Amino acid sequence: MENVVHKDSCREAHHDIMDYLKEFLKSYPDKPKFSISWMSVLTHNFQNSLSRADDYFYNFFNDTKKDFDNSFLFVIGDHGLRFGKSRQTKLGEIEDNNPALFLSVPKSLRNNPTFMQQLRINSKELITHFDIYATLTEIAQPKNPRISKPVLHGSSLFHPLPTPRTCDSLRIPFEFCNCRSKKIALPKNNQIGIKAAKLMIEQMNLNLTTSADTSNLCSKLSLKEDGEIIVEDYGGEQIERIYKITFSTIPGNGKFWGIISFNPLNKNIQIISSKFLRLNSYGKQAKCAKKSDYASYCFCITQ
């Protein structure tokens, strides 16, 4: 669609979004307003393509400088690059779970040393989107009595944050936690890895067959026998071990990873991950199920 809409023009998708935002900023000058402008085309498939928009965004923020003097501006991502060679590096894994977050506050607050110092302290803490929501709620509250008692699962970034700041206390699922202990690579294609990979693929097939938007549309997956299975041990002194398993499936040559627990006493394997994340792109392989939560698993029967 992007290629069709902008085929014969010198414009890109982000131009339309940002033009609309600029118009919105200039409208209703005396009224409080809120906007979410979300775009993904620039960097979704190619991490280095953002630089081509540097001049555009510089000019945009330069032109709207006065409009943001009395505004809170959040520049935020939902996740890092999810597939490709860089994602398969250690840094890529961290970036996937650690999206960008930049915050600009109104000019009147920038000269408040106590406020700014607290923001700087909190910028080095572990936070979640629940905290972003709590912060937005605090910004809106003075002007909106309808949300006098919001239900919050996080804390505003404008104040000291409750401790401890751990993945457990903040309800961050294990597979998305960057505060994990260092992994130890085990011999590739060992029996734990093979058994765990097959269990995960069973779960993937169950998800595909029981979901209304993928049932009867996607091929049954199986383990790519000549593919590499990577097993990484999170260590620790407990009897039960936590492993990260990376494996490949056919058809489609999908590369996935998930987290399991393994009890060496009874050899029991339990899947921890609620979903298995894909490390390579699937593109048109899943065109029959592109709106499904399990699109990344799907290799359409009709290609």
Automatic annotation (TrEMBL):
It comes from the Eukaryota. PANTHER family: FI08016P-RELATED, SULFATASE DOMAIN-CONTAINING PROTEIN. GO terms for cellular component: extracellular space. This is Sulfatase N-terminal domain-containing protein. InterPro entries: Alkaline_phosphatase_core_sf, DUF229.
